[in-house]
Amino acid sequence: MQRGLDSETKKQLEEEEKKIISEEHWYLDLPELKEKESFIIEEQSFLLCEDLLYGRMSFRGFNPEVEKLMLQMNAKHKAEEVEDETVELDVSDEEMARRYETLVGTIGKKFARKRDHANYEEDENGDITPIKAKKMFLKPQD
Amino acid sequence: MAEPASVAAESLAGSRARAARTVLGQVVLPGEELLLPEQEDAEGPGGAVERPLSLNARACSRVRVVCGPGLRRCGDRLLVTKCGRLRHKEPGSGSGGGVYWVDSQQKRYVPVKGDHVIGIVTAKSGDIFKVDVGGSEPASLSYLSFEGATKRNRPNVQVGDLIYGQFVVANKDMEPEMVCIDSCGRANGMGVIGQDGLLFKVTLGLIRKLLAPDCEIIQEVGKLYPLEIVFGMNGRIWVKAKTIQQTLILANILEACEHMTSDQRKQIFSRLAES
After folding, report:
1. What is the CATH number of domain B18-39+63-103?
2. Does A109 map to a domain?
3. Where do the H-state alpha helices sit in chain B?
4. B64 CA: distance to closest CA in chain A (Å)
5. Name one Pfam family in it (chain A) (predicted).
6. pTM of the predicted model as reported, rounded to 2 decimal places
7. Interface pTM (ipTM) of the complex?
8. Mean pLDDT of B248-266
């Protein structure tokens, strides 16, 4: 005599339970509504409409901090699109190229093994430039 | 004012929507519907002139239009909700169809997100200050919304202080919230307004007029004597000058300049400059 339920009957009972639970869930029986794309945006703020100046003002040096702020905020608001195209260089391009040239040698020397130090010789100016290429194995021609 | 009123009354009686472009600068009344430029061709006057069919689909060439204060969206049209003059601004950077709004006048302020206002601290409860901004509810201001404020380093704000801040939350469903820093965490002039000075109230339209980029009144006032002014979009102005008399003169000028013509104003300024 079997005490527990049969596996099949168990499955059936589970399925029935699931069905009851899912039918209890509510759903809206409406047709699909398509959201209309609206071309009009509503804004209640006057900031978009009119270019207003910054609200704090000071005249004839009464409050120097506010005068500085006035210049900052009003300039930001007027010249937002003007960008500085001429960026002043601190270091010229040629000097940069020269530095890089010697830099490669200096850093390379740091990682080179003792035997390879011969490759890095200092010339008159003290600039370290790698002179020779590494010695490779040359296969005999025969 | 009789002429624009009669014109408006005629159009309302005819109940025909007018094109927004033709009404720019004229007085509009609440309840009027305005057509946007793309639609006025389709609903052109009568059928007397037959328009040739255009092969390119009109629907694709619609641009986004922003309807500002005083206007609402009603289907595809704009519905006027306040009386005033209709204004339009062309888009600066090319995207969108520009902004339409109604230039109206009112004294009661309704909090709007992003507006800089002057508020008066009315209560201090725990970590929040209640600030009266002239709206239907006092705005809340957290003590952490000041520059350089931490839990240990609290800002020095007492009841009765004047605060210049901006709204971060302001809609009809929630209590307005304001802060005294910008999105980067800098104060930018916001915070507690200093000692002395005089706070008075004017209409909202005057504030916008005074803050316009080419306002002559402000330029002339600035030449009189050293002074400091703070404008709040809620109709409040705070002024301060070296002596009490100068402060009072300034307050009177700003209050009165709304109803003066430019000649009267120039007379008053020249009289002041002499004395």
Report:
1. 2.40.50.100
2. no
3. 2-14, 37-40, 204-210, 216-222, 244-256, 262-274
4. 5
5. MPP6
6. 0.69
7. 0.76
8. 91
